[in-house]
Amino acid sequence: MSDILKLTAADLAAKLRSGEVSSVEATQAHLDRIAAVDGDVHAFLHVSDHAVDVAADIDRRRAAGEELGELAGVPLAIKDVLVTTDMPSTSGSKILEGYMSPYDATVVARARAAGLVPLGKTNMDEFAMGSSTEHSAYGPTHNPWDLDRIPGGSGGGSAAAVAAFEAPLALGSDTGGSIRQPAHVTGTVGMKPTYGGVSRYGAIALASSLDQVGPVSRTVLDSALLHDVIGGHDPHDATSLTDAWPSFAAAAREGATGDVLKGLKVGVIRELDDTGFQKGVSESFRASLAAMEAAGAEIVEVSAPHFDYGVAAYYLILPAEASSNLAKFDSVRFGMRVNVPGGTVEDVMAATRDAGFGDEVKRRVILGTYALSAGYYDAYYGSAQKVRTLIQRDFDEAFAQVDVIATPSAPTTAFRLGEKLNDPIQMYLNDVTTIPVNLAGVPGISIPSGLAAEDGLPVGIQFVAPAREDARLYRVGAALEALLVDSWGGPILDRAPILGGAR
Amino acid sequence: MSEITPDLVRHLGVLARIQLSDEEVERLTGQLDAIVDNIAKVSEVATPEVAATSHPIPLSNVFRSDVPGDMLSLDEVLQNAPDAADGRFRVTAILGEEQ
Fold it and tell me: Which position among A178, A199, A288, A446 bears the catalytic label?
């Protein structure tokens, strides 16, 4: 494997700036890596045929003395939920096979403007509905740590791409854990920003009041650097916040010194009973807490009595919003159209949606249609929205006592492909610790906390901060990351099996 | 137990414009029944005095100037249409014979 591939995005950017490495070299190295291992991993649905040209343009502009962004020339993988003008955008669905967007998502446009080099589009559960990428219409992604296991979802492609060194950075989207849970099972870093902190314009909507776009990477600093590029107000997204954000990269660099841990109050949720969690996940979580405590942090038990209702509320709100958002796939304006001889437009629409949507999408659209129907609306959707208020209050009360909350990022390490595919309720419970964060709109980050003793697979720890305190997560995440990487003697991915060859 | 029946699922399929096969209706009936049993507990804590939250970060009156923004050309609008003619989307008959 080329040395370029092992570099963090921050280190690669430094070498690009100094001229030690060109963007063409870096881009070609990643394309070669994709060619070598993606047959096994299947992180990508589409690989750009002109990434080297884009990289050459960056090299030319750098040589001409142009002032470029910090990440200029660094390759980037893009989750297929984000629309792009130069590559198909399918959101993992057959109904959008081959769809070419007439515009770029704002985050993609900002990444291009900053000089990042799009490598391709990454696999995902269809319309981001899932926790394993097994609901992709184009076949699952395989976890680079064990190809028989799930890479998490919905953004399993983006997480697997960075874990397999096919890209140093990726974009993801997180509606109930789709950035953080894949990070947990692949030994990578994923950040869900404050709701409204990053534009959703051009992110094919799943549940509009929960969706948030965010960075995926191998280190906390790399996520922060990408967040600095994509974040900030966008007039194209009416829910976009107008706040002036601090530099997240500066926060991560400051955090890495470890000073932030001295006197930091870390909340642990009393009601989040981890007795049902995999033993190695709980052990890794507690070991991380102990490491933080030894570095001067104070662990404080906080109460969040309504977290128990989070998954239930989520599986009412998400299907309700998704059933509305997916009404646009109507066989009229874009996407698939099934030929029904003599059929009316409604017949064609119904046949197209039957043929074009997968099982999980149908399940959630039907569930959402039920939750919104007359007679049930108050009992289901209305009640779920009240649970959101209660969970927000739980967070408010907890954050009156602590600076951040810590949880395991998910209850288990990567499970086997197929293991939970026919049991939707078990699949839904994967996101028990990440869902409340989306319901409340607060930011959350998952960073590697170690390997589970019983199976040697990665485990993540999630930190949650109050709304708009994304920088705090980069500070705390970078501090713990520095402690743990030091104790391991190197990044956790050094211990992953070697792909495309002998273990 | 919830009240998910095959007839209700078939009706929801009509509302959602998804033509479900009998096999799909049967499978979805069982799955939705189990899911609804698991999510109905939201009503336990959703008491009348709790206000509903639709968006996590409240914003109000998000306006923009009343001037044309970024527009797609007609060609761009129609570029992904399954069928188009004369600058419009073309569809099959709106009304069936019985209507």
Answer: A178
Cα→Cα distances A243→A69, A232, A250, Å? 22, 7, 17
Q: How far apart are CA B86 and CA B99, in angstroms?
A: 27
At A427, is the pLDDT very low, low, confident or very high (cuts 50, 70, 90)?
Answer: confident
**How many domains are there within chain B?**
1
Q: What gap in Å lies between CA A367 and CA A252, rounded to an integer?
A: 41
Residue of A nearest to B51 (CA): A386
Query: Considering the domain boundaries, does residue B24 fall inside one?
Result: yes
Query: pLDDT value at position B98?
Result: 64
User: Is residue B78 within 8 Å of B89, Cβ to Cβ?
Assistant: yes
| Binary contact (B52, A388; C-beta < 8 A) | yes
Q: How is domain A3-304+396-495 classified at the CATH fold level?
A: Amidase signature (AS) enzymes (3.90.1300)
Q: Is residue B89 part of a domain?
A: no
Query: Among the options A22, A23, A136, A154, which is catalytic?
Result: A154
Q: What is the mean pLDDT of residues A265-286?
A: 92
Question: What ipTM, to 2 d.p.?
Answer: 0.94
Q: Which residues, other chains included, contact A296 with Cβ-Cβ below 8 Å and sequence gap of 6+? A: A261, A262, A263, A264
For A307-374, where are the alpha helices, taking DSSP H only?
A: 310-325, 345-356, 359-372
Is position B54 within any domain?
Answer: no
| pLDDT 10s digits, A388-398 | 999 999 999 99
Determine, yes or no, domain membership for B98.
no
